[in-house]
Amino acid sequence: MASFVGVGCMSGSSMDGLDICCVEFTGDIFTDLWGYRILAAETVAYSKQWSERLRDADNLSGIELIRLHVDYGRFQGKCVSTFITKHRLNERVQFVASHGHSVFHKPQEGISFQLGDGEVTAAMLKVPFVCNFRAKDVTIGGQGAPLVPCGEKYLFRNSDICINLGGIANIGIKGMRGYDICPCNRILNSLVLEKGGGQQYDKDGDLARSGDMVPEVLVKLQNLSYYQQDPPKSLWVDYIEENVLPILDCNKYKVENLLRTCTEHVASMVADACFEAKPSIATTSHHPNRTVLITGGGALNKYLVELIGQYLDAQGFEIEQVDEETINFKEALIFAFLGMRCLLGEDNVFSETTGARQDSVSGSIHRPLSSGSAKHISLLH
Fold first, then answer.
1. Which residue from 72, 93, 202, 312 puts its CA 20 to 30 A from 318's CA?
2. Which helix (DSSP H) or strand (DSSP E) does residue 17 occupy?
3. Helix H segments across the chain?
4. What is residue 31's DSSP assignment?
């Protein structure tokens, strides 16, 4: 039995902040059976300045983008270093892994770029730092996404379906297949910001609950070209900005009505994805109904989860109850796990999920500043 302690970081397209999660993984390297225990977790909220810099990143010149890449690497390193010290984890943490913040994701063009210079971040740490998990998979013909199901395969194997409601909603099916379903918090949060008043998101879905459906908008959303593609597939911000946001005309419709319509859209698309997966999932004696685990920031949107629950209940699914830390930090937790597998030299990105030509050991390993930290590296071999 082996035990490793790592820190995972995640910054999603909803741009609410940097999730940091310290996890202890316990398992058997030979049988590949793993469990986890969250030791500490928190979200470092982005300042208004950081939110604006990240939101405008894809419009920067080459030198400006490099500057942001370095600045974000420094910001990330400082946040993680402070987190480790604050929670008195200095003697326990053996590695850090990060998703980075995606700026470009165009797998059809062989491109996926995440902010956060790994060498800059590593210079602020005392343990190895792993990042850049998508590039290799994209190079060998994969989507480079979603990567979370690659971790669900080991850590959430008792769940039939895992749904993450982040900036984009995605599905993992028994840890064997997965894909991005539809835009989620990326459009809901954009509408709330458009409304003004200081709110960053629709707390509990109350604004959406107060609105009315806009049938013509719902039809346009349901007919998006992305939904005609077969998995494996991935969705990213540029597609949303070019094809989805123009449908949501706040000059023509009340924001509350658009929120109500978009929330209905997300709920129905999530339910459809679960229904399509149903034939490939066998029930067990412990769960006569097929189980669905819902996590991510959208899982705190009571109205959205209520609508999803209504759809799933009619289809014979049961939503799992899970602790709040797992709901909020599951993606950061999984990137810590993917980083651990990278350091162990084990496959951590799977072709059955991404569509690549083969599985891969993905992630760039950056050594810490001090050679005295070599002991941390040796613990993972």
1. 202
2. strand 17-28
3. 48-55, 62-86, 118-122, 135-139, 148-155, 185-195, 206-210, 215-222, 237-239, 255-277, 302-314, 324-344, 351-354, 374-378
4. T
Can you tell me the distance from the alpha carbon of 381 to that of 376, in angstroms, rounded to the nearest whole number? 10
Token readout for 116 is: 């956060």
Q: Among 296, 303, 49, 335, which Cα is nearest to 185's?
A: 296
Name the residue with tokens 């491109």: 111
Tokens of 61: 């010149």
Rounded to an integer, what distance in angstroms lies between the CA atom of residue 7 and that of residue 292? 26
d(C-alpha 131, C-alpha 116), whole Å: 8
Nearest 5°: phi and psi at 64? -70, -35
Residue 288 buriedness (CB in 10 A; 0-12 / 13-18 / 19+): exposed
Q: pLDDT of 202-246, one tens digit each?
A: 999 999 999 999 999 999 999 999 999 999 999 988 899 999 999
Per DSSP, the three-state class of 202 is: coil
- Residue 88 pLDDT level (bands cut at 50, 70, 90): very high
- Cis peptide leading into residue 232 (ω within 30°): yes
- Cα distances from 221 to residues 190, 207, 230, 237, in angstroms, run 16, 19, 17, 15
Distance in angstroms (rounded) separating the CA atoms of residues 362 and 359: 9
Residue 142 scores a pLDDT above 90? yes
Amino acid present at 59: N
What local confidence, expressed as pLDDT, does residue 288 receive? 64
What is the DSSP annotation of 123-191? TT-SS-EEE--SHHHHHTT------HHHHHHHHSTT-SEEEEESSEEEEEETTTEEEEEEE-HHHHHHH
pLDDT in the model for residue 380: 55
Q: 362-378 pLDDT, tens per residue?
A: 999 999 987 654 445 44
pLDDT per residue over 324-346, tens digit each? 999 999 999 999 999 999 999 99
Task: Over range 258-272, report the average pLDDT.
Answer: 98
Whole-model pTM above 0.85?
yes
